[in-house]
Amino acid sequence: MLEFKRGILGQELFYRKGIQGFEVKIDERLEKCIVYPPLSGEARSGDEVILNTTAMSLGLGTGGYHYVIANLRHGDKELTPGGHIMKMRYTPLQLKVMSVEEEASPHRQAMMEADSLDHTPVLVGTLHSILAPMALYLHRQGYRSAYLMTDGAALPLAFSNTVAILKERNIICGSVTAGHAFGGDLEAVNVYSGLLAAKKVLAADVIICAMGPGIVGTGSKWGFTGVEQGDILNAVESLQGIPIAVPRIGFADTRERHRGISHHTLTVLKRVCRVEAILPLPELEDQKMSFILEQLRKEELLESYLCCLERVEGFHDILDNSPLKLSTMGRGLEEEPDFFKTLLAAARVTERILRGEKLNRIRLS
Question: Rounded to whole angstroms, how far apart are CA atoms 31 and 65?
Fold first, then answer.
């Protein structure tokens, strides 16, 4: 079920394409809310709105915002022309988009002919925070990276300030939103066609695939949305791309299940992924390296994947000049350096592939 309340919009806090932020007065309390104009229309201060307040009442990590369901200032609203594929189907907020595959799409012919990724490397991760560091490095090296956003977390791409800045600075060449995610430069019905659109329409050298902000986890082995990583790696292989599994690695999280290689990554690699993907690993201090390699040995993953070791010197020099404040789970470069070193290792492995260089594969002794 959901909880909803009425409120009056106050000062506008921010605006960018597809999203507005406002102060909102609810029962004489001043709080914050987000408006998605494609769903409820453009908003302005003084508007009376209906808000979904469920997540805030539960104390969940939605960034401290309520979400506007309806703006009572608006009367009837007519459809704009173009597109007939529905996202968020059979809900009160189902919306139509022009999908890249449909008959009226300007890219219809390209998508009808698309059937292979032509050995394009695809970096697949579980967290939205993987996107910026890898895109920054690959852009710096002169490569075109496209972002494919799945529907495993936030559905509106507009919620991601990261994507907005990467697009504004031309650090990524475009975005595709797949499944029920919406708001990308291209809309795709599923991950398979989304991958092909990133290659054939956006002409990407590299595709970075991950969900939007807001991964769901339950502290259990199978109850997390990042399990999609394995299915996407399988999809990349079936489309003749090069699947690269970006592991979630860190030593700052107090939860033991996320120490070293996260249990999320281990579950995906052991039980979901069915292809011999490349698994990039950063060269860390001896104690940390031993811990990670023991995890891989215990799960018998060193034999199943192309585990590649990559040096990560110059880590701070590369990422300190980011136009974004880089963080993951609220921790930045200083608090969680090994997470970001892993992303740099993954980007450098990708660069080696694009240059036709030999990978530094870890061999069993």
Answer: 8
| Domain extents in the chain | 4-71, 108-355
What's the pLDDT band for 62 if we cut at 50, 70, 90? low
C-alpha–C-alpha distance, residues 350 and 207, integer Å: 10
Summarised one tens digit per residue, pLDDT across range 339-350 is 999 999 999 999
Task: Tell me whether residue 230 is exposed, middle or buried, using C-beta atoms within 10 angstroms of its C-beta: 0 to 12, 13 to 18, 19 or more.
Answer: buried
Q: Give pLDDT, residue 59.
A: 84
Topology given in CATH for the domain delimited by 108-355: Rossmann fold (3.40.50)
- CA distances to 36, 70, 126, 161, 183 from 39, rounded to whole Å, are 6, 8, 27, 19, 11
Q: Which of 359, 339, 227, 363 is nearest to 284 (CA)?
A: 339
Residue 365 confidence (pLDDT) above 80: no
The CATH architecture assigned to 4-71 reads Beta Barrel (2.40)
> DSSP letters along 240-307, please?
T-EEEE---EES--SSGGGSEE-HHHHHIIIII--S--EEEEE---HHHHHHHHHHHHHTT-TTTSEE
Residue 349 pairs with which residues in a beta bridge?
A: none
What length does the chain have? 365
* Cα-Cα-Cα-Cα dihedral sign, residues 64, 88, 90, 37: positive
CA 98 to chain centre: 21
First to last CA, the chain: 55
In the chain, count H helices and then E strands: 11, 17
- pLDDT on residue 61: 64
d(CA 301, CA 4): 47
Count of CB atoms situated within 10 Å of the CB of 362 = 16
Q: Which residues contact residue 193 at a Cβ distance below 8 angstroms, ignoring those fewer than 6 apart?
A: 100, 101, 111, 114, 178
Q: What is the tens place of the pLDDT at every residue in 105-149?
A: 999 999 999 999 999 999 999 999 999 999 999 999 999 999 999
Alpha-helical runs (H) found in the chain: 37-40, 54-58, 108-113, 131-140, 161-168, 191-200, 228-238, 263-267, 286-298, 315-319, 337-355
